[in-house]
Structure formats: C-alpha cells, structure tokens
Sequence to fold (518 residues):
Amino acid sequence: MSHACQEGHTGDHQLALFRKKSDEPNEAGGAGEGSVDAGSPGSGGLPSDSARAAKFYKHAQSVHDTGNYEYAMTLWLQGLRQDPASQTGLELFMKSALDFAARAKKPGATKDQLKNFDGKDGVDRYLRALLVWGARPADVPAGMKAIAAGTKLGVAEGAYWIGERVLNRARGDEKPKKETFVKLKDLFLELGAYDLAVQAGNDALSLDRTDTALEAQLRNLSAQATMTSGGYDATGDTGGFRKNIRDDEEQRLLEEGDRIVKTEDAQSRLLAAAKQDYEARPSDSAAVLKYANALIDGGTSAGEKLAMEILLKAHKDLSEFRFRQKAGDVQLRRARRKLRQLREAAKNGDADAEQTLEQAETKYIEMEIKELELCVHAYPTDLGFKFQLGKRHFTLENYDQAIEYFQQSQNDAKSRFVSQVYLGQAFDAVGWHTEAVETLRGALQAYDSPDDNLGIELRYALMTALLRKAADSGDIADAQEAGALASGIAMRDIGYKDIRAKRDQIKQLVTELKAKTA
Fold:
C-alpha cells in the first residue's frame, strides 16, 4: 500500500484501536491504551517498568514502519508512561513526531492523541507536553513547556535533551527575541543545566548588549557551569578533588549505557551499507567515519577493535588527527567499561576488586593523560585540552604538571575562574602558600557572588591557604584574615564542612602569635 493510502486510513485504524475495553490486552502486550498501568514506582517515586515499556516500544516501531506516525507517537508515549525516564522512548518518540509533523495536513496534535494524556498527575502532564511539542517541533513555547514539565517530574536527562533542541530552534527563528532566551536560561537554571543556561544567556545578551545585570549573571553562571562539570563544588568532602573526578567518571560510565537502542536488523543493515561504502571509498573521510561509527554502535568488542584499526589506518593515510583522536576515544571507552565492571565487583564485596580498584583508576587516568597530550600537541592553541590535562594531573597529585597547565588554561575565558581555583589549590599542595593565597584571593575578588555556594567554596579554600601560610610564617595578619573568612562562613552556615573546628584552630593560632609578639 502506498504512503498516501496508509495516511488515508490512519484515522479509522487508530480510532478502532482506542475503542478497546480497558481490560482488553492490546498489541503491545499490556492493558488497553485507555487505562495503562503506570508501572511500579522507580527512584524518586516515578514509574519504572522498562519491560512493559519495551513491549509498547516494539509495537510502536512496527506501527512507525508502516508510516502510521500519528499512532506510533501515542504508543511511544504509552511506553514512556511505564518508564518516564527512558531516553530511548523519548528519542524514538521524537523520530515519529518529526515524520508526523512533516506530513500532517494540519499542524499540531490530534484530538485522538490528546485524549490519551489528559490525566492530572505529573507523568501525564509531561507526556501531554511532549505530544504537543512533538507534533509542532518548531513551536518554541511548546518546547519550553515540555522542559518545565520534565524538570518538575524529575526526568533531568530527558529535559536536558529537549532543552538542547528547543534552544537550537529558538536560534533559528527569523526574528529571535531576547525574552525567549531569557526564559530558556531560567528554565535551564531550574533544571540545573548551567551549560545550557550560559548558552541561552549569551544568546539573549547578543540581542541586548546594554543588559549589564544579565552580563554579570552570566559571568557567575559560566563559573558555575565549569565548576559543576569539574566537580569543584564538592571540594572538602571526603576524598576531595580525587573523589569529585571519580564521581564524574562514574556518571560518564552510567550515561554510556543510555544510547538509543537499535534493532538488530536495522543495525545490521546500517553496518553492511557503511562497510560497502567504505570499501568503495577507503580514502574518503566521510566513509571512514560512517563505517567506524557503525562498528562502534554495534557495541561488540570485535567491532570496536576493527573500528580502531580503520581509524588508525585513516590517520596514517590521510594525516588527519581527528581519526587518531577518535581511535583514542574508543580505547578509553573500552577501558571505562572494564573499570565499571571492576567498580561494580568491588561494590558487591569482591575483595580482589577492592584491592585493585584504586590502581585501575590511576591507570585509567594515565591513559587519559596520554590521549590529552596528543590533543595538546595537535591543537596547541586549544586551552580546553590543557585545562583537562591539568585536572588529570591534579587528580594524580602531579601538582607541578598541574600548575603548568592551569597557568596556561587560565588565559581561556571559559575556564579562567576554575583554573585559578585549581591553581591556588595546587600551589597550596606543594607548599607555595604565598602563591596560593594570591591566586585564590584574586579569584575571589573577580567573583561577583561571594555568598553563593561557589563563593563560599572559594572563601573556604582561601581561608585554608591563609591558615597554612600563617602557621608556616608566623604572620598574624594572615591568621586574622583567615579568621575573618571563617567567621563569615560560620555566620552564613555554621554546619558548613568543618568550619567550627577550623574557626577554633585559627583562633588558637592567633592567640599563640599574639603571645609571641607581646
């Protein structure tokens, strides 16, 4: 049957299916669409029934393949009702939605679609917002409602994914409005997506350079975005920076498992086509990347090894560093997978895994350093790679090397502030207390919000460096400045870290130094 014929029968077909009794099983294997069970509660009280969601997804894919995108959209959302945090369901829903929007005679969700998501709970509100936005993907306000609904429901990854696409749509408007980007900035702040908030804020600022208040806010947001990604806001907790970066790595390991799942048949077809194209054009960059990506997406060890071989050959033949860089990414990905398995074993009480875990983590960071060094050599003016190298050396307590890279990366506006904070900490770690104090004091003076969480972190770091400097040099002025910082932090939050003990320690030092000069 042609696409036109399929579209002509869409309405009757869909209505017939939705008229089933609520207790009648549907093709997805669950209850009738009119009364889908929300599934068992997952973390945070959200439904989490991935097995049942998968049944809906299987049916949705079959319906999508027939060209019945309207009904497929509904089925994807019915699957999401079982597991709202499913990134797979969200992304595949959007694929059907885009096809639906491209062919729909009248833009927007249909009544038949909307009636399935008219509940009052958070899940239905999120699904309805997704449906309205998906049926009109160029509707930025509808997209913003979907971001807000996802944030309120607690599906952060999904809300972030939606946010990236809505932001790009807003940028594509013929007459972009400052107010739109300001609203997006605020939505991203509520979500905790500081990187997107900075992007949206910069878009707003580009439309009104006179908004000094927004400019000042963006400086702080840029610092927040960089610090959050670097893990600095957890400094002082158990494990310090090393724990921060390892926790960040743990998150990366988890996220790797959330890629879009393709059917085996579809994956085989894509791989075969990419291989054929590569064999016909082995010196074509696009063909190389397409084949390598298809092998990597397959998720097999043999496929990843072959992808690395192809990429390294392309690097040698075409002299393009990006192929070597991608091969390194694959190697690190394989290492991360092994590290994740070791962590899980250690978490489950495997004594051997517990003993070798720290050594394995160190070895992995050393692998990262080698890859980053190649990137620095290939892109010497890209200070972002130097910042990342500095972080890795700091984690391994290679403070001299860390200092060298942070001194360079602080010249990059994107990482200036956090580079200075790391730099001050590195100076302090090697006993260069004067340099640590001057660096941290300069960073604090340049920071516009000394009373927010990052500002408190920075004041605490400066206080610690001043305390050590005063203890070494006997300078009472440094001890008194440390005391003033400790008092300020305690007045704001008496339970902050070990501030009570630090304040008492500083008071004792000031008393001792005064006694010596009396």
